[in-house]
Design brief:
By secondary structure, the chain is an alpha/beta fold. The protein has three domains: 63 residues, Orthogonal Bundle (Arc Repressor Mutant, subunit A); 137 residues, Nucleotidyltransferase, domain 5, CATH 3.30.420; 159 residues, 2-Layer Sandwich (Nucleotidyltransferase, domain 5), CATH 3.30.420.40. The chain is built from 14 helices and 15 strands. The strands form four sheets. It has a five-stranded mixed beta sheet with strand order 6-5-4-7-10, sandwiched between helices. It has a five-stranded mixed beta sheet with strand order 13-12-11-14-15, sandwiched between helices. A three-stranded antiparallel beta sheet has the order 1-3-2. The longest helix is centred in the C-terminal third of the chain and has 27 residues. The two termini are 18 Å apart. The mean pLDDT is 89.
């Protein structure tokens, strides 16, 4: 327990001296020295120079050994597969972005190929990768080894998907919802850093929300917390059977819903959200009206969630949600008209990389646990 406490402290604070560890952790100096010696023998921590600038003798500083393990994070989206490999300090040393292949088998093969190629890019053998974390739309069902509600990735909900990915990758593999990963990315590297209660609202191809409550990601009883695309909002008929598949709010606010809205208002030609928002910036009146309707729908979603979880901050992300120059002011105006609750509203600072940062961060947590367990077993035997 002491070694685990010290390892986590060094990960968060390091480089750090024995005296500071003892002072800030509440452990005795002999306990800290004994634990540090064990962690150093195991290769999990290393000396990182000596302190300077203070009175008295200098002290040895300790840091996590960044090459004690490696992690891969993969963000699987409707259009792109983004992947990165990082050392144990979380420093990304190589990255690859590829267009998503069609079909679950082709996509599984692509993920494995990209992940193994990243190890080569980093100059290491694949067996040195401790954990790979895969993020995708949908909700993981561990008992069935599959992902449900991943409508934007055809075939991704096939039975045995998890087992197939683990077999193809050949290392410990963890899975997480992509919006949850973006939320973790914001918590570790973005606007959510140091915020105890916030939500991340993703509006893109699909619509979802990640919730951090009391400093912890909230997944719910079955992992479906934050599936706000299924809120019966922004629809003419909440009982329409089609809403059970994709969700009423997602049907109205996701990418395909925005295109339908634009066409209904008279826009013609090849349309997608990027083109629609670009036209709004150029002053096109129809596109401007579409942007206004999008803002109203986002405000409706925020107004429905805020009284339930009372967040300090709402972070907007996703390809649609990141259009803050067009959306923030009308969202805030509509929110004031709808609700007495007005949390701070910001656009993600991590952009399209939020999910990837979250995948790497989650992989690091799992890797440190696994490396620590291996070390304890080795020392015990």
């Amino acid at each position: 327990m002491n070694e685990r406490t010290i390892l986590e402290f060094i990960r968060q604070v390091g480089p750090v001296s024995r005296a500071q560890i003892a002072r800030d952790s509440g452990l005795s100096k002999p306990t800290v020295s004994q634990a540090l010696a064990a962690l150093e023998r195991a290769g999990l921590v290393r000396a990182a120079g000596r302190s300077s600038g203070g009175k008295g003798p200098t002290a040895v500083l300790y840091e996590l050994n960044p090459r004690a393990g490696w992690v891969v994070g993969v963000d699987v989206g409707h259009s792109w597969v983004r992947a990165a490999i990082a050392d144990l300090m979380g420093d990304i040393v190589a990255r690859r972005d590829e267009r998503t292949r069609t079909g679950s088998r082709a996509l599984i093969a692509q993920i494995a190929e990209v992940a193994h190629a990243l190890a080569g890019d980093a100059g290491i053998k694949w067996n040195r990768v401790t954990v790979a974390t895969i993020g995708s739309p949908g909700v993981l069902q561990p008992s069935r080894g599959q992902v449900s509600l991943a409508h934007n990735l055809p075939g991704w909900g096939r039975h045995g998907l998890v087992e197939m990915l683990q077999r193809e990758l050949g290392t410990k593999t963890t899975f997480e919802n992509d919006v949850n990963l973006a939320t973790i990315g914001e918590q570790v590297h973005g606007l959510g850093k140091g915020v105890q209660n916030f939500v991340y609202l993703h509006v893109g191809t699909g619509v979802g929300m990640g919730l951090v409550l009391g400093g912890e990601l909230h997944r719910g009883a079955g992992g479906a917390a934050g599936e706000v695309g299924y809120l019966p909002l922004a629809t003419a008929d909440p009982h329409d059977p089609a809403n059970r598949r994709r969700g009423a709010l997602e049907s109205a606010l996701g990418a395909s819903g925005i295109v339908r809205t634009a066409r209904a208002l008279g826009m013609r030609g090849a349309l997608d959200p990027r083109r629609i928002f670009a036209a709004a910036r150029e002053g096109d009146p129809v596109a401007t009206e579409v942007a206004r309707l999008v803002a109203e729908r986002i405000a409706l979603a925020v107004a429905s969630v805020v009284p339930v979880v009372d967040p300090e901050l709402v972070i907007l992300g996703g390809g649609i949600g990141r259009n803050g120059d067009l959306l923030l002011e009308p969202i805030e105006r509509e929110l004031r008209a709808l609700s007495p609750f007005h949390p701070r509203l910001e656009v993600s600072s991590l952009g399209e990389d939020a999910e990837l940062h979250g995948a790497v961060a989650l992989a690091l947590q799992a890797a440190q646990e696994q490396l620590f367990a291996r070390t304890r077993h080795r020392l015990a035997t």
